[in-house]
Amino acid sequence: MPVLRRSAVLLTTVCTAAATLVGLGVAGTASAAPCGNAGLLGSSPLGNAIGNAFGSFGSSGGPLLGKSSSQGPLPTVNGGNTTPVAWVTGAKSPNNTEARFGISGTDLGIAWDNGTGQTLMAFGDTFGNCNAAGQQWRHNLILRTTDTNPADGVTIGNGVPGDVRSGAVVGSGAPTFATESIPALEIAGVEVTTIPTAAIAIDGKQYMNYMSVRQWGGPGRWVTNSSAIAVSSDNGQTWATQPQTVRLNLPVTVPGVEQVDDSNGKYQQNAYLRGHDDPYIYQYGTPNGRFGAAFLCRFLPGNILDLSKYQYYTGDSDPTKTWSPDTTKSKAVVTEPVSELSVAWNNRLQRYVMLYGNETTGNLVMRTATAPQGPFSAPTTLLTSQQLGGVYAPYIYPSNGGNDQYLYFTASRWLDYNVMMMRTDLSRIPVG
């Protein structure tokens, strides 16, 4: 969807819904301090999504980045089954993303195999020089790597203007500044930011599911306008939102945008999974924020952009009724609270592995199942808030470097507002 058309749709949507949302008691603006400031871009603060069980600070605490960057050394964890391996981003990472890409702080790092020998990584709200105008805020961006051995982190090559396989998308006038992938209106109460939540490659194209955040609320809570799929035919260099994939999360109807039903709210943040010995791609969804359950739907790869072809898990024991095209029949496969999840098949365990954060406890947890719909095992704790506070968003990395004893995943830390590679020793994980 062209930027102007997308902006018009969003403005129409949120303006029509404004009175209704006020009546529902949507939280007002709350400022954050990603660069040591009281807010961001004047009327468009990031908000107080930071300030939660994961140890973040919010507007009442300290800065995430400080005046330039307050990233610390790679933290250590004593004991347990999971340990940090290396910083992926930040000035203190081996990639030195501050100098090479203008990235002093960012989060997420959703990683996926692009199908042609590279791993692509999608990051959320990103900042550069905190003393520059707007702190060089980008709502999201893509980095690329050919590194298949995450045992010592991942190496990201230089960005090369016009090179769709280089380490970052950069322009000829700024070859050391990674550019934004999906824009946002930057209007508080309309659209504050756009954040990737899942991505997958199908037949040479890249598909990224993202959420449009209307308003940050209290700790771990925010309101979305919608989720949608953007497509790239040039390896993440450019992206185009597909209007037919928009799942509105507002009580309005927009002409030209197919409305499914109120169950759109179950799929505002997502995770993709390729079935093992199975033709389907599965999409796990959660509501906006960090307190919802996880739901499940599936589709054949060629139907990713056609929501009418999706099938939703109903939980019905009758195998002829287990999957339905009716979104209202979509039942939870994991109970709340589930936040920022990822799922992948694991050869060592011969099970599907799900990682996510528990907002109530501040822990990162793992669950396993022999089928995408479960039943999933009881959660195994990978990292507690006491071991390493403020860590969130565990996204499974698509390579283990040839050593299946370890599961690698990226995770973000509020204190440093950067992404690190983590490693879990699967020999210490009970499988039941």
Automatic annotation (TrEMBL):
<feature type="domain" description="DUF4185">
    <location>
        <begin position="92"/>
        <end position="423"/>
    </location>
</feature>
<dbReference type="InterPro" id="IPR023296">
    <property type="entry name" value="Glyco_hydro_beta-prop_sf"/>
</dbReference>
<protein>
    <submittedName>
        <fullName>DUF4185 domain-containing protein</fullName>
    </submittedName>
</protein>
<dbReference type="Pfam" id="PF13810">
    <property type="entry name" value="DUF4185"/>
</dbReference>
<feature type="signal peptide">
    <location>
        <begin position="1"/>
        <end position="32"/>
    </location>
</feature>
<keyword id="KW-0732">Signal</keyword>
<dbReference type="InterPro" id="IPR025442">
    <property type="entry name" value="DUF4185"/>
</dbReference>
